Amino acid sequence: MHSISYRYVLELLREDGKPIARVPASADWEPATECARFTALRHGRLSAAEEGSDLSVLPVWHETSGPPYLSGFQVCIDANGSGPITSDFPITYWHELAQDAGSLLVTRGTLRADERFFYRVLAYECDAATEDRPADSFLVEKVSPPLPVTPGDLSEYLSGSTRFGPQEAGDMPVVIPPQVLSETASLAKGADGLETGGVLIGHLHRDESIPEIFARVTAQVPARHTTSSSTRLRFTAETWADVRAAIALRSSAEIRLGWWHSHPVRHWRDHENEAGNADAAGCSAGDFFSAEDCALHRTVFPAAYSVGLVVSDVRRASADWTTAWSLFGWRSGVIQARGFNLLAEDRAVA
Amino acid sequence: MEKLRTIKEVMVSDVSGQKMASVHDVPSDCTVGEFMRKVIADMNLPQNDVEGRPLSYQVLNEQSGQHLPTSETVGDTLQDGDRVVLHPNIDAGDG
After folding, report:
1. Which of B73, B74, B67 is nearest to B89 (CA)?
2. Considering only CB atoms, which chain B residues are within 8 Å of A256?
3. pTM of the model
4. What is the ipTM metric for this complex?
5. Which residue of A has its CA nearest to B86?
6. CATH label, B6-89, candidates 3.60.150.10, 3.30.1300.10, 3.10.20.90, 1.10.1060.10
């Protein structure tokens, strides 16, 4: 349960430092608090029994400007039996909000579309809001389920594996077997220019020797009951129900580690060539997570360990097409491109 | 006047299974849609898509494996101790 008693404001400034506007900046704290909690669990600073501990979000004041200006914020977990566990987050957590505010100012004519601006974040104390439950309303009590983790030896899985994508220290390791990548490529190719996708399932393992938690993808479940076009893929309620049934049928205690979807870049490029104008999807490379992709990830896969795989066509120097895979995941409460390890063939066991 | 029957407890989770809530004392004449809207808000699940349009969810009863019609009442569709999952209709892509 959060205890937040500050209101946050974005101050937008022109390049010469002149202020343009101040707008309310109520951030979505959940990705940050989820990140803080999971990071503490990963590194053994928070025990399983303490997973549901209360936490709070506090501003970190700018070291030269001082209050009310921030240099970031801190999530503080009030773990029982030990001191508070803190995680720091940078001011860039508000970047997307600042971009949205800038877009609004462009619409209003206050900013030019090509004009750069800077932003600062301010915080002011306010009374913590208390909610009174209406007399005729029912009670919704949040529950913190334990993280579904089993013991595992990370070095065993990394042995012989191949690293893909941008690796950053501090990222939770993710290992993926080759057949999952080949299945996604095959399904993407078979979709004939339409976006397609599925759910990545597997296990979370704790390696006590490090300590660390890592994700091991074991399979992908194709998303059925979807509707799609070359630039959109709708996951319906029936899709999720179907995936649930498929996981139950496997009886392997697998959890939903994330999802994957395809970017049919070859089809986009063909459409671009036919139209003779700007790329139909606004992008000729497929390794990106759109705003809609981020929103889906936030809505369906908010857990800090969740990942999203993008399967896209890539043109080789020889001009023929091949498949590329890009992984995205939560990093400091923000969805970013990240790396993964492709398991060696003989390690790819269920 | 007869006291309205309530469903004492229903467990709700999101698709990932990592966000859960225990919902207590749900009036039996509450519709599934009303139940869902309050639970989504109180669980702090996203309610709008990127464009600001309301997301549509459906409630899956784990026992039956069926999505519940939103116009039906909780009293007619759920029992004490049932577990349900909130399933959104949601898009990936560039639109």
Report:
1. B67
2. 15-17
3. 0.91
4. 0.95
5. A237
6. 3.10.20.90
